[in-house]
Amino acid sequence: MIVIGGGLAGLSSGVALAEAGFRVRLLEQRPHLGGRAASYVLPGGEHVDNCQHVTLGCCTNLADFYARAGAADKIRFFDRLYFAAPDGRRGSMEAAALPAPLHMAPSFALFPLLDWADKRAIAAALLAIARSGGRPGDASAAGTGITMLAWLQKHRQTERAIRRFWEVILVSALDEELDKIDAQYGIDVFWKAFLSTRGGYRIGIPRVPLGNLYDGCKEAITGRGGEVILRAGVRGFLVADGAVEGVEREDGSVETADYYLAAVPQDVLPELLPPEVAEREPAFSNLKNLRASPITGVHLWFDRHVMREPFLTLVDLTTQWVFNKTQLYGEGGDNSGQYLQLVISASYSLTQRSRQEIIALCLEELHGVLPATREATLVKGTVVKEMSATFSPAPGSDQWRPAQKSPLAKLFLAGDWTATGWPSTMEGAVRSGYLAAEAILADAGTPRKFLQPDLKPEWLARLWARES
Ligand SMILES: Cc1cc2nc3c(=O)[nH]c(=O)nc-3n(C[C@H](O)[C@H](O)[C@H](O)COP(=O)(O)OP(=O)(O)OC[C@H]3O[C@@H](n4cnc5c(N)ncnc54)[C@H](O)[C@@H]3O)c2cc1C
After folding, report:
1. Whether 422 and 283 share a structural domain
2. SS3 content of the chain, % helix, strand, coil (to 5)
3. Which terminus of the chain is more solvent-facing, meaning fewer CB atoms within 10 Å of its CB: N or C?
């Protein structure tokens, strides 16, 4: 069994298939595992994530994968979400001792960054989602879906409610602007994370650099007779009579196996196939319809402590999240300095701007939110622009996402872009890996389940949804 790609899709399927008795040979072109959710070492010796990655309580398959990889205790979950306005005013949200979907209501009622008109509008829209069990009939039009912005306008949201609530949560969850998001994707976020269960919204942040989460994957594969080979790029598939017969590596060598699993990004897969196959088969040719959206990560090292919270979500600013990496890594007791990581999703406005301009913009915003940064010295700063961070969850984009069983015999597909029903996330990638492993095992005549169920909606959420 050959797996091509050592991101979360390739790793999760590789681990699952190794557990099922396959001898997995995983080929990854880079010198490290993790794909887009990876970390590396800067010339100065600092371990930096490609970009901060967070998970949520509702990401059941990612949690299962971390457990299989022995990394579950490297994720710290937070019950309280921290928000800040440009002038430094703070707000927070956390669950009270009430059943879902009412558990967030008390902290929402007291949330200081929205007024009553905003809150009334938001509550009515959330009620519409809860009443429909996450499937409001007006979220789709002729099977293609309306945009999230259109849905919010239809539900009479105030301008500030859109800007300070819906946009803040959805742009970072889905890496896209509200007028380009399929409403059903946006509604799913609120149903799964905030309305159906009490724990779905809990935010999980690694205590270690991302690369440290995957040590157990390598052991799980090699311990069962498999191999994980880095710097092993694949140049293409050898295809004959509608079946994959081998892979050609970048060093010119050819490898063969009983099954092949392509766990590479959606824009790479067609390049690995003979052009006539990539054009003929809709599963491959449709991939060009999936557009990419960017994320910008900004890493700042200060000479002193400038932030108390573990993380902050910012409203009304270009910078959307600030993560206190020093605190999250359990370091910095000596007040020697602080490392912050800032995240800007759907960062279209920054793609043409220089790294210096982006750092200057972020610093200016931090001066309002974290006043201690005004006196502090910025020791070092770096910017990572990921132009193709995720695929854009545009209305109708699900129709272009192929199943994990490809039209070519012996070739299976995994990746956050395959048909999982989830947006482009680590959870989506792991779901695709588990689904691909299940499809291979079914093809081999030894079916087995790996996919974990969603968190079950709690009793009141189920009752409300039934009554509608
Ligand atoms: C900046 C940024 C921030 C993000 N933040 C979050 C977040 O907070 N939470 C979240 O859930 N998700 C987040 N995501 C999305 C998440 O990272 C992805 O959805 C997920 O990691 C995709 O995994 P994958 O395995 O499908 O693809 P990838 O991670 O892209 O893995 C594909 C792998 O294939 C390898 N490969 C490519 N071509 C070849 C070849 N020819 N031969 C061999 N190997 C090859 C690549 O090197 C790579 O390792 C973020 C993404 C980015 C970019």
Report:
1. yes
2. 40, 20, 40
3. C
d(CA 9, CA 65): 10
Element (H, E) at 210: none
Q: Do 280 and 365 lie in a common domain?
A: no
3-class secondary-structure state, position 335: coil
Spatial separation of the C-alpha atoms in residues 79 and 21, rounded to whole Å: 39
Among 65, 261, 426, which residue has the most ligand 1 atoms within 8 Å of its CB, making it the best to mutate? 426
Q: State whether 144 and 49 are in the same domain.
A: no
Residue whose CB lies within 8 A of the most ligand 1 atoms, among 13, 40, 53, 422, for a mutation test = 53
Clarify whether residues 246 and 324 are in a common domain: no
Structure tokens at 329: 């890594």
In a shared domain, residues 193 and 341: no
Which residue CA neighbors atom 51 of ligand 1 most closely? 389
CATH of the domain at 375: 3.90.660.10
Q: How confident is the model at residue 43 (pLDDT cuts 50, 70, 90)?
A: confident
pTM of the model: 0.97
Tell which atom from ligand 1 comes closest to the C-alpha of 295.
1
* 371-430 residue pLDDT tens: 999 999 999 999 999 999 999 999 999 999 999 999 999 999 999 999 999 999 999 999
d(CA 342, CA 298): 5
Task: Report the nearest-CA residue for atom 41 of ligand 1.
Answer: 234
Distance CA 460, CA 468 (A): 13
Range of the domain at 425: 2-70+207-290+395-443
Burial class (CB in 10 A: 0-12, 13-18, 19+), 66: buried
Ligand 1: residues with CB < 6 A are: 4-10, 27-30, 35-37, 51, 53-55, 233-234, 263-265, 268, 295, 297, 386, 389-390, 415-416, 424-429
Q: What is the pLDDT of residues 249-259, one digit of tens each?
A: 999 999 999 99
235 and 182 inside one domain: no
Question: Atom 5 (ligand 1): residue with closest C-alpha?
Answer: 53
Looking at the structure, do residues 279 and 427 belong to the same domain, yes or no? Answer: yes
